[in-house]
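Q: Convert this sequence to structure tokens.
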Amino acid sequence: MKNLLRSLRDLFLKPAVRIGLGVLVTGGFIAGVLAWQGFNTAMEATNKEEFCLSCHTMHDNLLPELQKTVHWNNRTGVRARCPDCHVPHDFTDKVARKMQASREVLGQLLGTIDTREKFKEHRIVLAQREWKRFSANGSKECRACHDYKDMDFDKMRPASQVAMRKAAERNQSCVDCHKGVAHQLPEMKGARNPAFDTLVSSASGQSVDTGKDYFLVVPQELFADEGMTKRIGAIEVATQVKVLETKGDAQRVELALWRKNKGYGRVWYSHFGLNITSAILDKEIAQDTSFVKVLDTKEDPMTGLEWQQVTATAWMRKGSVLESVEPVWSIARASYNSSCSVCHRQPEEAHFDANTWPGLFGGMVGFTSMDDDTARVVLKYLQTHSSDFSTSHGAGSPDSALQTARP
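A:
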């Protein structure tokens, strides 16, 4: 028994005396090669598109989107596969990405995105994570196929030439402009601009005097009663109102706006002849003459439409107004400059009139990551700083411009 224990001790604790150094080195080398080969085989297996699509979340949600794009089917037959875009090509970056992917595997196992509804809800987080990675590495995976130095700008459409030449000069990341080229863009409803929190905080501390004009910092619902139980419409951000009284958590305000004398007249605008939306009422309320008072009627010489200057009073939740609209415009201006200058030099605010801006902005905003609230306030900022106000009211004085809406 003692001899057996001694032998075991010698086997584990004493250097080998019968096995040559060459055998140990050779065995270690072979073991290392096998380990490396096993690691590399596992890496290659997890880099195949079949592996990506073996997860039903990817197969059911992302594959159908990819199959509708030029990256899946095109005249040249060159197709981008999942790893081409989402797995770094450099070895060290690839290993780091594989380690990060363990979080996504855990999310799948825990059921974070195991249904279509959960996937859509969580999609904004996944998208922003990838956008951040592409922005940080200059869209290196995209540029493995689409490199600026290999582009023939003269074969592009004129508008594309201007944008792409400027992007090449800045060595810009592809994802800054092309977020939705292979998959649908996520709904931005789950995202919000934290800058609005500052406005809400300021509004909650705003001292409000009866009979004075203020500006909304966030959209609000309108109610017919002090208890705010009967909803009658909604009022948009930056709309000017006169506060008539405050009771508890509610404020009664007066709206003095314009509407087209067409249909139900539900949409109310801040200025005559300009489609700058300020409030939208329920159709029954909009046609209620006991609620809506018509102060004046004018014909728009540009369209021949009849416009009515209207006024009404309604209740809304208190703590959502400021004395000046400039803090709202500051956020809108910063968002416009940061988001809309990524792809190209954005137009000056006064370059277009108020009625032209909605169509132009609607075509651009889809290429940005603006949430809905920010997009609405930026559009209103552009309209109230458009060429319609650049000379007669001053593009830098939105307070005075909005004052023209009130009789």
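Confidence is low (pLDDT under 50) at residues 392-407.
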